[in-house]
């Protein structure tokens, strides 16, 4: 969970500025719709907004993170912060009615209340209509936060009563910093941040032993290709296929291999700071001198074509054996 607005600025600067200004001017909307792809920080920022709303020692616009209210929100048990999530496949009318009933009571701690509806697009029509009545007559000191990955599925009548805040896909550097902060090694963090812009998925991949092994196997294959000892096809047979043993894993393997060649090209273009495999930069710099830019680009194209063939259900072992022979050329 993010602790302050400064953290948000690094990966959702526009969202951060908009909400910060509203808090400073005491002009928070009574209803927000947070929309954007999975893993862009919508829920975390919802809780951060809740802390700023309830904090007893607000510092300009930032929560103190140490008062009773901040701690209760962090632990998920503040009596005036209510979360509604799908019950099964949908959010039902009864859940919204229970929320309305709860909000008709006086606040337990103060006269403030906040509710978050996660996956708001999954409300049934009856639930959405019940919520609409709630939004049309907002209580003072009440904030609603609706969260969705598919805001086009929300009723227009609800959209018109909410302040829409769009969350942008996260940049690789933001994912990388989040992973490093979660004690993931820099080498793994740099690579994972290229594969997904979903923070949760990134953490899951980075903590998977299979992925760490995959990275090592890809490096080993690349070295076998570069050294041209004839070991690469054998390596596919003895080690590659057993580790990359389904289509999704084989795609990941090709992606990891592609990033090595992208790094070689980045070095040739003088963009060393963009290199993902920073621990290999010395040998990649040497390889960059031995290959032309055209040759590297052709190798990258071969890997992308192999990915397409994989989707077309070509035999993966034959595909990889053919690819390494192609990569060894030129």
UniProtKB/TrEMBL annotation:
Any single biological process term in GO: DNA-templated DNA replication
MF (Gene Ontology): 3'-5' exonuclease activity; DNA binding; DNA-directed DNA polymerase activity
Boundaries of every DNA polymerase III delta subunit C-terminal domain copy: 245-328
Entry keywords, A to Z: DNA replication, DNA-directed DNA polymerase, Nucleotidyltransferase, Transferase
GO cellular component terms given for this protein: DNA polymerase III complex
Catalytic activity of the protein: DNA(n) + a 2'-deoxyribonucleoside 5'-triphosphate = DNA(n+1) + diphosphate
EC number: 2.7.7.7
SUPFAM superfamilies reported for this sequence: P-loop containing nucleoside triphosphate hydrolases
InterPro entries to which the protein is assigned, alphabetical: DNA_pol_HolB, DNA_pol_III_delta_C, DNA_Rep/Repair_Clamp_Loader, P-loop_NTPase
Domain of life: Bacteria
NCBIfam families for the chain: holB, PRK08058.1
Protein name, UniProt field: DNA polymerase III subunit delta'
Species of origin: Metabacillus sediminilitoris
Organism ancestry: Bacteria, Bacillati, Bacillota, Bacilli, Bacillales
Gene that this polypeptide is encoded by: holB
């Amino acid at each position: 969970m993010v602790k302050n607005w400064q953290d948000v600025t690094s990966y959702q600067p526009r969202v951060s500025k908009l909400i910060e200004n509203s808090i400073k001017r005491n002009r928070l909307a009574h209803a927000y719709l947070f929309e954007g792809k999975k893993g862009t920080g919508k829920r975390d920022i919802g809780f951060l907004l809740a802390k700023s709303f309830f904090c007893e020692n607000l510092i300009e616009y930032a929560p103190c993170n140490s008062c009773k209210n901040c701690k209760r929100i962090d632990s998920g048990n503040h009596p005036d912060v209510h979360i509604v999530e799908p019950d099964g496949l949908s959010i039902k009318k009864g859940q919204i009615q229970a929320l309305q009933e709860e909000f008709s009571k006086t606040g337990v701690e103060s006269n403030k209340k906040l509710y978050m509806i996660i996956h708001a697009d999954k409300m049934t029509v009856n639930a959405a209509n019940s919520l609409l009545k709630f939004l049309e007559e907002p209580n003072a000191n009440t904030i609603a936060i609706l969260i969705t990955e598919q805001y086009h599925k929300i009723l227009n009548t609800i959209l018109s009563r909410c302040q829409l805040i769009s969350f942008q896909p996260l940049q690789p550097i933001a994912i990388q910093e989040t992973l490093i902060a979660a004690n993931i090694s820099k080498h793994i963090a740099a690579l994972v941040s290229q594969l997904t812009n979903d923070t949760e998925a990134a953490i899951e991949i980075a903590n998977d032993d299979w992925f760490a092994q995959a990275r090592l196997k890809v490096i080993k294959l690349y070295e076998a290709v570069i050294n041209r000892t004839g070991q690469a096809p054998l390596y596919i047979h003895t080690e590659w296929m057993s580790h990359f043993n389904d289509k999704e894993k084989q795609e990941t393997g090709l992606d990891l291999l592609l990033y090595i060649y992208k790094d070689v090209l980045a070095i040739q273009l003088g963009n060393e700071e963009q290199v993902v495999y920073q621990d290999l930069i010395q040998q990649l710099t040497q390889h960059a001198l031995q290959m032309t830019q055209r040759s590297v680009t052709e190798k990258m194209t071969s890997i992308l074509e192999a990915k397409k063939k994989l989707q077309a259900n070509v035999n993966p072992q034959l595909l990889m054996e053919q690819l390494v022979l192609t990569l060894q050329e030129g």
